[in-house]
Each structure stands twice: as C-alpha cells, then as structure tokens.
From TrEMBL:
Entry superkingdom: Bacteria
Protein name (Swiss-Prot/TrEMBL): DUF6895 domain-containing protein
Domain DUF6895: from-to ranges: 16-296
InterPro entries in alphabetical order: DUF6895
One Pfam match: DUF6895
C-alpha cells in the first residue's frame, strides 16, 4: 500500500497552534503553595514544566521554527526557568526533600542542555549519586531507562547499563505486537524517547527494534486514530519520526490535526472537554505538549 506523506505546512501548523496555546496558558503551569507543601504533589506538578522545556528545546534543535515562533519559544523557556522554577530553586528544594528521587534531575536536564545552571542542585545530585540508594531504589525498566538517559545527558556516568536496561523493557524484548494495551503503548513511546534523546539521535535505536517498529507502527497508528486517542496518537507520531523511514502518513496526520481546537489545544481522547478552566488545563496540557513535539519532529523529517 502506498502512503502519501503529509505536507510540511500541515505538520508545522499543528505545532504553531499548540505553541500559541501553551504560551497563552503559561501561567497555569505555576506551582501552587499546596504543591510545595507536598513532595509528591510537587513532583507531579513539576513534570509538565520539564515537558515544556523538552518541547522548546526540540523546537530549537530541529531548526523548523520561524523567527516569531523561535522568539516565543525562547521566552517561554526563560519564563519556565525563572518564574516557574525560581531559577532552579524549586528543583533544589525537591532534591533536598527527596534526595533519591530522579524527578529533579529529569526536569533539570533540558534546562541544563539549554544553558541554564543551578550549581547547588548539581552538587546535591552528585552527593545523592554517590549513595547506594540512588541505584538501589526499585524502578520498572522504562523508568530506569529515563534516569539513565538523564544521567547521560547531563554528562555523568550512568548508574547502570543502558543497553541491558533497554533489553528489559517491553519494547526491548520485541513481544507479540497484538498485546499492545494502552499503558504498554505509552511504555513503547517513552522507551523510544529515552533511547533517541527525544528524537535527537534516531540512529541510536538498535536495528532490530527499528525494524520491529517499522513493521507494526502503521497498524498501531491506525488503531489509536480510530479510537480517537489523540494523546497517544501524538506520541506514536513522534516514534514514526524517529524511524529511519518515517511514513508521515497524510491521512493519519489530517485526522490528528482535525482534532486540534482552533485555540491550539489538543484533547486527550475524543472531543474537547468542558468545565472549570483550571481542570480543563490539567486535561489539555500534556496532549498539547505532545502535539508541539510531534509537529517539530515530523516537520523536520519532512523538510530533511
């Protein structure tokens, strides 16, 4: 079957609209006093800020943003560091409170890669990494891979074997493709993100894994598009862009773009939710961040 590739204009438009929505709603990413009072809540509230940083970095790295989009993304990244994270102070506080959680490191890494620094946080992470507990805390292979990726990206020796950990993930074992349920599908996408450094090094995917994805990803894309699960579909579209021969399927991308609201927001599943603006934001920020990520990666591959 011949697949028609989506136009770069369509791919770019999805990301431009998503960035507009993220920038318009940037104050809703703020950490509340209630979040600060609970270490667990703080860790959960920090993850969207880290995802925001990853997305802006990908946009700059792939070189597909126009001058206005670059300026807006740069201002958004600076806002996240200075306003949302208090120049890294919020991450340092979490690291002091929970010295063996990887959350502070994972959120810090994309800012570090973009030139932001907090020496005190780095010193605390270095102390924590010298303990046996840092590596001993039990994590599923996919989460362990995230930590190892963060260590590698910040320039320190990984605390375990990256390749061995990859082979213990669901994707690394190349299971039967019809067993892909929702949580497994997200494990697949994040394994690809950690191996390729969020799409920077597609060639880092081992050949057998790349071949496996090349064979079965089209069916997964079709399935989750039919189910209108836009959040997962967006992540799978990023995986497609990480393959040696990305499809950039026009039909799938048109359905994905059609789910995006005029404001740029992307729903998780089905139609756009309604209700309290804060509650709606909590439902929309992740799929909209994913839309910006998918757009940057796919536009770069289309133009390349």
């Amino acid at each position: 079957m011949t697949v028609t590739a989506a136009s770069p204009a369509l791919l770019h438009r999805v990301g431009e609209r998503a960035l507009d929505w993220l920038d318009t709603n940037r104050d809703r990413f703020r950490i509340t006093p209630e979040d600060h009072a609970s270490g667990l809540a703080l860790g959960e509230r920090l993850k969207p800020v880290g995802e925001l940083a990853v997305n802006t970095r990908v946009l700059f790295r792939e070189g597909v943003a126009g001058s206005r989009q670059r300026e807006r993304a740069g201002a958004l990244l600076d806002f996240a560091w200075r306003e949302l994270l208090d120049g890294g102070g919020v991450l340092a506080a979490l690291q002091a409170q929970e010295p063996h959680t990887p959350v502070a490191l994972e959120v810090y890494v994309p800012f570090h890669e973009s030139g932001y620094r907090h020496p005190g946080l780095e010193e605390m992470i270095a102390v924590s990494r010298r303990t046996r507990s840092w590596a001993a805390v039990e994590k599923p292979p996919n989460r362990q891979l995230a930590l190892l990726s963060a260590e590698r990206r910040i320039g320190v020796r990984p605390s375990a074997s990256f390749d061995e950990t990859l082979r213990r993930t669901w994707l690394g074992q190349l299971p039967e493709p019809w067993t892909v349920q929702l949580h497994i599908a997200y494990d697949i996408t994040h394994t690809v993100f950690h191996v390729t450094n969020w799409g920077e090094r597609p060639d880092a995917l081992p050949a057998d894994i790349a071949d496996y994805l090349d064979r079965y990803l089209p069916a997964w894309l079709e399935t989750w598009a039919d189910l209108e699960h836009w959040d997962l579909l967006g992540e799978l579209l990023v995986v497609d862009a990480c393959l040696p021969r990305p499809a950039l399927d026009a039909e799938i991308w048109e359905r994905y773009a059609g789910a995006q609201a005029p404001s740029g927001a992307m729903p998780v599943h089905g139609a756009m939710p309604e209700g309290d603006p804060g509650d709606v934001f909590d439902l929309l920020h992740h799929p909209t961040l994913v839309a910006a990520f998918a757009s940057a990666m796919a536009t770069s591959r289309a133009l390349g």
